């Protein structure tokens, strides 16, 4: 190995170390993870794919979990409605249409989002400490987002999908791929619970 080649390899190794150090502590979507769908309601009871609620784990480029980081769900590019009051530990910013929580010691966070309406496209941004990581879908048992509750109009929409349109995404609350009996159970619990709330203006 010539001195020039050895020097080039040394420089390359040094640059790799510098790059690794620079990205340490910065949220990275290569090693971070999140659910594909935010599933919400008016009650704030966690629902969705198992484990219930919307889960995200934030890691840096070295695959190190990042504790104490703010994870934000941004609904501003959607018709989804955010409720003014969220569960304890969740911060809501009505003008920005966002809700946020802080990661635990394992870099993990779990949302039981209070939202209405739905968006079947990947238009909800998942952001950690200002770094955009993922885009996901959203749905709620408050399907119409009209009155702050899971009510009779929502029941009519759910019933039609359940009987005639099993592939409807907006009523697939367990994120199994179809609107089926487990979704009926989730919807029914919210409908009978009668929880109500006020949307952000």
Compute the gyration radius: what is it?
21 Å
Order of helices and strands: HEEEEEEEEEEEHH
The tally of helices reads 3
Rounded average pLDDT: 92
Unreliable sequence segments:
8-20
What's the domain count?
A: 1
From the N-terminal CA to the C-terminal CA, the straight-line distance is 68 Å
The biggest beta sheet is recorded as: 6 strands, mixed
What is the 3D shape?
A: globular
- Helicity range: 10-25%
Helix/strand structural class = alpha+beta
Strand content: 25-35%
**Largest sheet: spatial strand order:** 2-11-10-4-7-6
Strand tally is 11
What is the oligomeric state here? Answer: single chain
Structure description:
This protein has 201 residues and is of the alpha+beta class. The protein has one domain (25-193). Helices cover 23% and strands 25% of the residues. The chain is built from 3 helices and 11 strands. The protein has helices at residues 3-23, 152-164, 181-193; strands at 33-34, 37-40, 54-57, 70-74, 81-82, 91-93, 98-102, 108-111, 115-116, 119-128, 131-140. A 6-stranded mixed beta sheet has the order 2-11-10-4-7-6, with no helix packed on it. A hairpin with a 4-residue loop joins strand 6 (91-93) and strand 7 (98-102). The relative contact order is 0.19. Residues 8-20 have low confidence and may be disordered.
Short structural description:
This protein has 201 residues and is α+β, with helices and mostly antiparallel strands.
């Amino acid at each position: 190995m010539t001195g020039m080649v050895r020097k080039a390899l040394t420089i390359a190794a040094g640059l790799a170390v510098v790059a690794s150090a620079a990205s340490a502590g910065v949220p990275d979507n290569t090693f971070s993870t999140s659910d594909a769908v935010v599933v919400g309601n008016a009650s704030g009871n966690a629902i969705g794919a198992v484990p219930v609620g919307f889960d995200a784990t934030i890691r840096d480029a070295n695959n190190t979990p990042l504790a104490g980081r703010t994870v934000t769900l941004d609904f501003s590019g959607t018709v989804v409605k955010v409720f003014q009051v969220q569960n304890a530990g969740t911060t809501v910013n009505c003008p920005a249409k966002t809700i946020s929580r802080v990661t635990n010691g394992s870099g993990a966070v779990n949302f039981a989002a209070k939202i209405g309406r739905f968006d079947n496209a990947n238009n909800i941004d998942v952001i950690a400490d200002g770094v955009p990581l993922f885009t996901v879908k959203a749905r709620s048992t408050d399907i119409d987002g009209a009155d702050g509750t899971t009510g009779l109009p929502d029941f009519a929409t759910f019933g039609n999908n359940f009987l005639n349109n099993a592939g409807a995404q907006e009523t697939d609350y367990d994120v199994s791929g179809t609107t089926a009996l487990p979704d009926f159970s989730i919807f029914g619990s919210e409908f009978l619970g009668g929880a109500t709330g006020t949307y952000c203006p």
